[in-house]
Amino acid sequence: MDVFVLLRRVTNDLILTPADLRGPVRSFGTGDSLNDIRTSHGAARALTLTPGYAARRTCIPSHRCPTVDATPARRTHVVQPHVATHVSTCPGCGAHWPDESDDCAARFNALLALDHSHAEPWGSRHGSAFAVFALQHPDRHSRESLERAWILLQTTRVLGLPEAHVIRRLRRSGKERVDWGLPSLPAGRPRTFDMTIADLGDFQAETYAAHLEQWCAATLRAWQALATA
Fold it and tell me: pTM of this prediction?
């Protein structure tokens, strides 16, 4: 009679080597172990498997039998999601940066290089860019510099005066105070802003002018809120 040996058990696969599959056919019961299945020399037909492969189902036949599936098990690669390990926060304006290699000062230095190139749209807006950065980082500047920055933003964004005209008048006046008819710089300082230099990206020419106006407006709102608090 044909004796079929199911090598795949319910809980695990048995691993056979070519040495285990040499010798004549014997009859085995369902309780026989792998050692019982080992055969002696002189087999009329041998079944060859590559060492280390799992024999899911095989038989020791006297005639045709199902094909042996000796396909190696497929390995599954699990991709672990990337998790940010650190986010730095600017103590001046509250801007968030993805790592410590970038910060507000480094980004502003890149903007200054564009301003000093005198290319547009950056060169003609240098005064506004300096003023808004100073007011968002007041700990780095004197009170006098902050007051001039405050005047520049208010005269250009509230009164609508040309930036070049205001800058020339501030330079001529020196340390002499000029009455612009505007509220003085509020005491204290804001801690957060609706927009920071981090939101300006790489200062692309196509969007820089609009982004600068939004940056200036966010800075004015934060300082004006101090006066009404």
Answer: 0.61
